[in-house]
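Example 579.
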Amino acid sequence: MTAANSRPRASSTGAAIPQSAQSQPARSADIDLAAIRHNVATLAAHVAPAKTMVVVKADAYGHGALPVALAAQAAGAHIIGTAHLEEALALREAGLTGELVAWLHTPDAAFAEALAADIQIGVSGWELSRVISAAAAIGHPAQVHLKVDTGLGRNGCPLPDWPALLAEAAAAEAAGHIKVVGIFSHLAMSEELAHHCTPDQLATFEEALGYVREAGLNPTYRHIANTAAAIAWPEAKYDLVRVGLGTYGLSPFADKTPEDLGLIPAMTLRTRVANVKDVPVGTGVSYGWRYHTHDGSRLALIPMGYADGIPRPAVAGPVSIHGTTYNCVGTVAMDQFVLDLSQHPQAQATVNVGDEAILFGPPPAPSATAWADAAGTINYEIVTRISPRTPRRYRNAEFRLTLHTAEHTSAFAAALAGYLRPGDGIILSGELGAGKTTFTQGLATGLGIEAAITSPTFVLARHHENPTGPQLVHVDAYRLTDAQELYDIDLDRTVPDAITVVEWGQDKAEELFTSWLQIELIREVGGAADTTDFSDEDVDEPRQLIIRPHGPRFQTLTAIQELAQLVAAAATGGEEPQP
Ligand SMILES: *Cc1c(COP(=O)(O)O)cnc(C)c1O
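Predicted structure in complex with pyridoxal-5'-phosphate:
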């Protein structure tokens, strides 16, 4: 192994660093994709048989459009929605398949490009003629959702102009330029359950739908409900609901928490205490001295400010340290704000420089809604405004892929090899005959190793040297009882410079790695698998592959995007079973 191929380690001792002991980034917005999947599945079940559009505009309310869109689709979202065409196009370019719609345009919108990318277009009026010419130019019909203004007073066609817009659309549909797939509108105060606004808007929507029938149009999707309406107004469900806020585990209702709704907040905003100091009574704190300590006070400095998206007016915003919640005092600055720890005299002694500080997250952490209350805004804005200076870390990502043949399995593994770096681990599970050896052989091929891969069952670990790159260490942990035994066979020595594949390593091998992929192979044909037969690895029957990335290297947006692209390429590449 050359020096150029070895990567810096978190410790100079050479020992494997347990995940828990690794240094955390200075600040991060941790996105729990399992929470996203849970929330989408919960909302989709609530509105069924109506379908679910998950709204990922504004980078998925700050959570990351692509990871959220993928998680939403995995959890049963039928359509992904954005405001801008550019947002939808970026998702397509990142490999997102499936139905995708965007609805807020300016005259320079790239309609032809959007149509070529099979993006559906929301139309409120002037856009229709532009979409028709774009469709004519590219030679296939545009899928259009016509928007009517039922009382929000923003976008959408006013009712008096609606019949004319429908007539133009019907003519274009007859001419084969467009297909009207949707009719939609947006509600102004669906979270106000006692106000007449929503019933009025629904009545106007019914009237608008009457004109749609008269025009001879037959859309697949009639949709008007956002999260609050999807939850609280059953009569607003129609064929499809558009959920944004609920996807992210936040409540649109003043009197209901996410837990009341069965939702889990997906974003945790965290940093570490940057300074702690004792100051005299009457010390002025932060710009403008809007706060003076009233006892001899201990102050903690939180290194996030309005440049990170913390609202400057959010004086008294909550921060949890070791489970105790302190409130911000004084002005929020660009990069930092201050807590007065003497708000909790007993707990304050436990706070040290470097301790984790959680601004908001799922309970028991303070909520994004508490920050919204402190800032005089809504929870939507709190999560959406967290700036790019705060890196997102994705937890509980999960990719699923059907591998149709043994050849498809090894081709995917070979492609995956190009994505791996020395030090990465793969914890590979699957019953005997599920294709673990085929997979590992593909990985070896992708790394440039020519040796035949055989099961390491009887030797525990095989080291495959590689003249051109990292060696492949192939381990069978089946007969090992705990992680210590992996250290006993000296794996911690080779891990930093190798790609290490551990079969049967779940709940044992995690400690060896800083970052690893947990990969599961599942034979779709169940039944009479002879569990002592090693020979049926090559049988060409489909396998389900599940990848779960762990550790800092695989938790970045870039890593998630790269994995998504590998999986998307393999999904389209393997459709034709090889003879
Ligand atoms: C943002 C948006 C939504 C999502 O609203 P939530 O209240 O976040 O569920 C739905 N429809 C349209 C047109 C939107 O712009």
